[in-house]
Amino acid sequence: MSSQSDNAITIYPAPEDLPPLVRGLLENGEEVIAIARTDLVGSDYGEELVVLTNRRVLAVAEGRETRAIPLAKITAASIRGYINSCVLVVDTDEGSRGFAVFTRARLEAFEKFVTLTNNMVIGGGQYRLMRQVLDRIKRVSVSRGGRAVLVRLLGLLRPVMLLLISSILVAVAIRLLNMLPPYLMKSLIDEVLLNKQADRLFYIIVGLLAVNLVNTGLGTINAYLNTKFNVAIANTLRSKIYSKLHELSLSHYDQFGSGGLWSRIMDDVGRIQWAMQASFRDLFINAATVAFIGFTLVTLNAQLTLIVLLPIPVSVTATTIYRRLSSRYYQRMWRRWSRIVSIISDTINAVILVRSYGKESSFKDSFERYQEEFEKAQMDVFKFEQQIWPASGLAFTASSLLVWWIGGNQVLQGAISLGTLTAFTSYMWMFYSPVFGLIDNIKNLQILSMSASRVFDILDLEPDVVVTPEARDVEIRGDIAFNNVWFTYDGIHYALRGVNVKIRAGERVGLVGPSGSGKTTLAKLLLRLYEPQLGSLTYDGIDVKEIKMDSLKRQVAIVLQNPVLLDATIAENISLGASNAEPEEIIYAAKLARAHDFIMRFPEAYDFEVGMQGSRLSGGERARVALAAALLKNPKVLILDEPTAALDALTEDEVTEELERLTRGKTTVIIAHRLSTLRFVDRIIVMDKGAAVEEGPHEELLKRDGLYKKLWEAQLKGLTRMSQAEAGELYAAQRA
Amino acid sequence: MSSTLHRELRILDPKSVRVTAAYLDEVDVEINGELIQGVRPRKPFPYSHPEIVIFYKGNEEIGILKDYRMLDSESRGTLEKALRIVYFMPEIRKVLSIRWVQGRYEWRVVTDKGEEKFETWSRCVRVLPDGRLVVKDIYSRAYIVEHPEKLDAKSKALLTMMI
Questions:
Q1: Using the beta-carbon criterion (under 8 Å), do A583 and B52 form an inter-chain contact?
Q2: Cys bridge to B94: A105, A264, B105, B110, which one at CB 3.0-4.6 A?
Q3: ipTM of the modeled complex
Q4: Which value, to the nearest 10 degrees, does the dihedral of the CA atoms of residues B16, B22, B25, B26 take?
């Protein structure tokens, strides 16, 4: 069992994680749902545990008397907020009473606690459902060990492994070849120039030329393999995630958000691509180079090799300090730069505002001040860097001078040859770069592991909406039944609470209710974009799970509020659900949706490309194209979520009239805030807090004096006020 | 749906339609013997189904020709005269050069109307489902490449860099 926890609240704690104080209080069969921690006890700082179980709400603290209220007595929980402190209030049949006190720092935790308590009071035993959902959410962010992630990533990248190995081998070969010229130079000095062996000069020059030629050839191959490897990694990973995106349930999209998914596909894959090259591949290359050069240095002169190693600890320390402190200097500089950008942007974009309030000189002063502050931040970066890098550079200089001093003396004493010293110093400078590279590589492996872990978060998701092998093609007639359907997106708040709704084939039903009452969730369930977590949804008595997805999506169409279109032509967007539609059918559907006229106003008409997410069309135009797409499918069940929300009053009226005609005899569910859109429906279902609270025809609901009547009257009042305002404007205009 | 659709869309029988005269972007049309003057022909799918034409008199739709090529040859010729004006679009036959100049691409091309020079933004080439290419310049003027496969090697290479 898993739990969701932060410092202030633990939801569904595992029994072994329960504080002993709480564990000792539990009765047989009593389960803890949440433990919230206060940070006040009375008016002093202190901690009290407020515990919600499936039977009671308790307040527990060491050395204090435990308070408990049975859930059966509680009618609601709420929070009273003050300047700094808040009080958890519990309403019972006997009245309201404060139960615990905490500061605003704990407000978010106690809001969750209140929701969970109210869920228990209203939803009874459904807390197990919440737990299941939270468990699923929790599973997504399971932590993985760094090494395990890397091993798994390599497994995933098996198709590009041959490229990786070839790329490493070629790069190592290049590094080794680069080691030859200093050795040849040593021979040139010692054997040819000092010993006057002219016959060997030609061979050494040819050797140097050959090394260069082979190196150039290998360099080209290396660059090719490297590019190929980079592209192959990104393509392999992106393809895997992209195909996973199509399998994910909508709940996963809610959970990660479009930004979260986007960043995993683009940013994390990019980081993996970079880190695979900059850390994993180079790790082998640098390690091989360090080993070879280190061996050569020791072979040439072990004593001097020790001196070569001296500046490394100094430089590693300097780099570590730089990495730790540099971000604060740079971030301050960027922050100050962004203030300059911001004031320029304000000056340009809000020029009328600035001038109408006469703020020019004030803006100029601020600008000057920001410039000065930015300059200071820039100079601070410079000073900081000057404190770090010269010291490091000095260590290298000192080490090389020491090598020349000791090595020079050894040459003068005849202990080593001049060629050996020259070759040694060349190798010395070649040695440092891969050593630092190796340190970087190891650090970068952490980035690789973190990004890979985030990618695996997506790849490991299992769709909620599972297609069973028993699912079959069904010709839907249009009878719909929600049977005690419960649904939650986040495991804390209910979106639907035991909804029981029946819609007859051919019936037109309006769904109304305040925002967040569950109308859209209900509509999404109809298309099986989500699955009921408890209860069932049936079409013509057949559980939706037994109907093939293709079959369902062919016969049920949904037009969502604020529809998003594909970056394609209008014709392609309309024929999305009917790719074989004839051009005249597309025109007909567009005419039905009152879209044809505006489409024909574009020079490219139906071949007009609508841009990303339909950005080249207005909200109303997008809505009409989406409606045309739904109508072209000629669905058995049509779901319209606020179909006229983005339309102006005249078009709304036209579309509503058209909908009346189009939906005759077709099972139709229309969600609407503007109740006038529903004038033609057979029945209205009123949703509130995730439950269907009223249903019936418009006139009948008005007589009931319930929520519908309130909504209706509120809209009438709004209309009246609008009419008065319009009359006022008209009067003023006439007088003018 | 089909008969409703035909009725509601006012799909015209090409045998009952004669295009008698063309004046720039307008034509005179005789439908079932009734003469309607000053009719504007429009293609609802200028790229994907260029054979479909809708006739407009003012803002009112008179009817749709599913394939104007089914008209008698004289009517077709007259209608095409107007369509060539409405859908004026030079056809690129050769690309001489595409240079990047100050954030824009400067094209030098040979079209069926002669040699031309125009500027485009980076994303300017649209590949139609049938493989034809439409290039749009910074003023949204369109140039079509009817047969990309028949272009010379240099033109192909230059165009490929822009797709």
A1: yes
A2: B110
A3: 0.86
A4: -50
